[in-house]
Amino acid sequence: MNLTNPSNTLSPDKWVDNYADYLFNYAIVRVNNSNVAKDLVQETFLAGLKSAKNFEGKSTERTWLVSILKRKIIDYYRKINSKKGQAEVRMSFYDSGENEGSWIEERVPQTWGNDADKDIENEELKNQLDECIDKLPEKYAMVFKMKTIQQFETEDICKELNISPSNLWVIIHRARTQLRSCMEKNWFNK
């Protein structure tokens, strides 16, 4: 099934074969949950089908699908950052894997043993971090998560939130300062 537009040709019947793995890998890095990543890729394909008539051929099919997926990822984080969404979905830190816990680049923890005491301590640390992030002003939390945790590009965040790059870095700095203070008060000095 080819949907044609005067300036382009889309091949939705080949999307799964040609782009599913790439889109899944793109999403999993940003959401760190394979089920959510799969859902986002499916939503991307569905949205692509619905908006195929709007495809102008100014980019490749894959680039166009990635831009749809980026919007889906942003929408996903907006949802979980809303009060209602927070009740439905919790972000996970320190569940598994060597990349877990790299929430602040300068303070990536060293690998700890897998013994039960450390697992309990990691869960307590994750809970305290969640509480500290929840205490940040909404915009600070959103920018911090998008840049530091999900690793969105500065340009994408600025465009999405309609802020300048210098404003973004001020927000990141203030969010990190507030997180450090909260963690020092509630975790390191308990």
From TrEMBL:
<keyword id="KW-0238">DNA-binding</keyword>
<comment type="similarity">
    <text>Belongs to the sigma-70 factor family. ECF subfamily.</text>
</comment>
<dbReference type="GO" id="GO:0003677">
    <property type="term" value="F:DNA binding"/>
</dbReference>
<keyword id="KW-0805">Transcription regulation</keyword>
<dbReference type="InterPro" id="IPR039425">
    <property type="entry name" value="RNA_pol_sigma-70-like"/>
</dbReference>
<dbReference type="GO" id="GO:0006352">
    <property type="term" value="P:DNA-templated transcription initiation"/>
</dbReference>
<keyword id="KW-0804">Transcription</keyword>
<dbReference type="Pfam" id="PF08281">
    <property type="entry name" value="Sigma70_r4_2"/>
</dbReference>
<dbReference type="InterPro" id="IPR007627">
    <property type="entry name" value="RNA_pol_sigma70_r2"/>
</dbReference>
<dbReference type="GO" id="GO:0016987">
    <property type="term" value="F:sigma factor activity"/>
</dbReference>
<feature type="domain" description="RNA polymerase sigma factor 70 region 4 type 2">
    <location>
        <begin position="127"/>
        <end position="179"/>
    </location>
</feature>
<dbReference type="InterPro" id="IPR013249">
    <property type="entry name" value="RNA_pol_sigma70_r4_t2"/>
</dbReference>
<dbReference type="InterPro" id="IPR013325">
    <property type="entry name" value="RNA_pol_sigma_r2"/>
</dbReference>
<keyword id="KW-0731">Sigma factor</keyword>
<dbReference type="Pfam" id="PF04542">
    <property type="entry name" value="Sigma70_r2"/>
</dbReference>
<protein>
    <submittedName>
        <fullName>Sigma-70 family RNA polymerase sigma factor</fullName>
    </submittedName>
</protein>
<dbReference type="InterPro" id="IPR013324">
    <property type="entry name" value="RNA_pol_sigma_r3/r4-like"/>
</dbReference>
<dbReference type="InterPro" id="IPR036388">
    <property type="entry name" value="WH-like_DNA-bd_sf"/>
</dbReference>
<dbReference type="InterPro" id="IPR014284">
    <property type="entry name" value="RNA_pol_sigma-70_dom"/>
</dbReference>
<feature type="domain" description="RNA polymerase sigma-70 region 2">
    <location>
        <begin position="16"/>
        <end position="79"/>
    </location>
</feature>
